[in-house]
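TICKET: design request
STATUS: open
ATTACHED STRUCTURE:
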């Protein structure tokens, strides 16, 4: 079961942390760039996006963009940590894009095929439809990325259509609030 655990930072700004059976999802921080480079610097992860692995400068810029999104919209990407060890293994969260609130997830390839992406995405989905009161989530998944497609399906998303964005084919998955919470992953 996922439970949001609000805490208060030193400057009295509420910080949201989501807790699952095996994971802690906490708001992303600037210093996470070093650990996240182990995700986005991995060619296996970046092959899913069809781009080259990030270098340190690209990683810092990507984290900064996500922190700006968080500040502007009040939500964004969480850093995903293994609760037992405290190791940062990826990110999962929400980003407002031109077609809606996108649920996205990226994990180190060493942690694939263990249900962790589904666990993280389920927690974010529940947070989005619960406290954030969002009505719909979408996921853009590059055509051929079957692992991400399975995660989207397990969190209750359904394939809406195949679209082309900037010359790349994507599957557009979506889920509306009422139907999402009735489906729990296996």
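STATUS: resolved
RESOLUTION: sequence designed for all positions
ATTACHED SEQUENCE:
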């Amino acid at each position: 079961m996922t439970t949001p655990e609000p805490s208060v930072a030193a400057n009295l700004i509420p910080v949201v942390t989501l807790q699952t059976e095996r994971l802690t999802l906490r708001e992303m921080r600037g210093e996470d760039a070093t650990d996240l480079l182990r995700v986005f610097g991995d060619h296996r992860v970046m092959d899913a996006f069809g781009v080259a692995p990030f270098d340190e400068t690209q990683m810092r810029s990507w984290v900064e963009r996500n922190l700006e999104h968080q500040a502007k919209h009040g939500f964004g990407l969480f850093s995903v940590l293994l609760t037992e060890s405290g190791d940062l293994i990826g990110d999962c969260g929400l980003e407002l894009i031109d077609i809606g609130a996108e649920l996205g997830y990226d994990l180190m390839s060493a942690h694939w095929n263990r249900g962790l992406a589904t666990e993280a995405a389920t927690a974010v989905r529940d947070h989005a439809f619960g406290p954030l009161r969002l009505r719909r989530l979408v996921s853009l998944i590059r055509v051929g990325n079957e692992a991400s497609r399975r995660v989207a399906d397990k969190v209750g998303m359904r394939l809406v259509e195949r679209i082309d964005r900037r010359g790349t084919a994507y599957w557009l998955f979506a889920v509306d609030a009422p139907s999402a919470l009735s489906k729990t992953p296996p």
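CLOSING REMARK: The longest strand covers residues 88-97. The domain at 3-134 is CATH 3.40.630.30 (Aminopeptidase).
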